[in-house]
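worker-03 picked up job from queue 'complexes'. Input manifest follows; two sequence lines, order preserved.
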Amino acid sequence: MNDLSIDLGKGFKIANPVLTASGTFGYGDEASEVVDVNRFGGIVTKSLSLEPRIGNPPPRIVETPSGMINSIGLANIGLEAFLREKAPYLSQLSCKVIINIAARTEEEFCDVIKTLDNEKWISAYEINVSCPNVKEGGIAFGTDPDVLRRLTQKLRDKTDRYLIIKLSPNVTNIAQMAEIVQECNADAVSMINTLYGAAIDIHTRKPKINTVIGGLSGPAIKPAALAHIIKARKVIDIPIIGIGGISNGEDVIEFMLAGASAVQLGTVNFYNPCAIYEILNFIEQYMTQYNMTSLQEIIGQMLV
Amino acid sequence: MKCVTIGTVRSNQKVADQIFLATIEVPDIARQCLPGQFVNIYFSGSVKLFPRPFSIASVSGKSILILYKVIGSQTTLMSRWQIGHQVKLLGPLGNNFTISENKSIKYVLLAGGVGAAPLMFFRDELVKENIKPHFFIGAKTKSELPIIEDDKSDLIVTTDDGSKGLKGTVIEHFEDFLKNIRHSISLNVCGPEPMMSALKNISFPDNVTINVSLEKTIACGLGLCQGCAVKNTTDKFKGHYALVCKDGPVFNLKDIEFDE
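worker-03 finished. Artifact:
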């Protein structure tokens, strides 16, 4: 049996490097009929906010070449309903559970964390500072260095729990953002969130999603994600959790070679909900082929 | 319980202009699906990622029937399926049309073109309960009609141009039909969104309950992506959108607000 486990530091160890990406796997229970959720190293839940959010009006998604654009608008059930309806399922999972948090203000982030800190089954927080969909707030945190620094510091002061900051690629210098996160003693960065994307119906001349500009994801953004990770790896040494169009085992290895310690599956959950099985099989075979004892050996081992 | 599974194409025939009927042997889905439910069909290409949703048009032994219209690249691929072709599917998905305990209700099925699919399955289910429904099926012209005769229902065929059956829209002829009915009516509808939104604008008498099967772009079919949102005015959906894939595709028309 090959050792697929990854030590993300500060006692946070996952059985394999494959996590789900926020907003593509609900709260885990929705997909549990078709896939064994515990096969993932961990699941990252849909962005959670203090109050419920209705999200954006339709149309919310559109298929684009090798990808999709979404503008869901962080629709979610809110903290109270989350603890009542979703915590019982999530808390009994054997894989790790990472809660993604979205908020409009620093105070809202702190309020959510204050409540969640009481829930012992949660392994980590992933902070959504970058979702480009929401018209108010959100965008400023991840795109302004000073705002990002202040937020990360505040959250670090607030909680001892494993803290991941999810970076936006829609910035001039993502390496600078990653550096700020590390300086503020966050435990890891996850990257990249969706890129800006748009699509227009040439017959009606209307945008294909309600917010005109949404978040582009899927295999189309994979090369961009790899480039951003390589840039960030050069300036930080905290773990990077790679995200962006991963659809098979080869992609996971590629992201790890670029410097990711773990990865998240996003859009692939929609068009291949059982991808996790194929990916884990591939990784096992790859490790055997290259005589590896621990998967950690390949992190950042791209040969240049 | 829904599952991801592999089916085998047993037949794939053209039944009208651009409309095909495929039989897919897929026991895991055939043995448990209900009328109104749908399957997601996966395609292996890497340019178009989303699966495509199709209502189940009937069940025959271990197989499901899929009635589809060729409108784009994926349905073109389907039209070329040969017997024996392997298809990856997710299903059965969504909720279903229902038969009431109340025996005095009359069932009317109202289809626009290929929207006949889920209603054919519902018709089969009604026939099992010894109920013969009225089945209105309309299209622009004769060549777009997926069915033109049916011994299991009282079939009323309409075409906008009068090339087959009654001339006019299927809704107009249903309204005529309704004038002579005093029973409670369960009207079950599937067709293009403009047809269903036109129905919404007609004030029907209280004895008519309208259930519609909706279609939206669906990326996952499991409620993961929240992409197939539709506004539903009932308390159950207060503060959030209903999802066509999970909460539907069948909704009571009076609860639905269509996009502008």
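worker-03 released lock.
Chain B touches chain A through 31 residues (CB under 8 Å).
Chain B has two domains: 3-93, 106-213.
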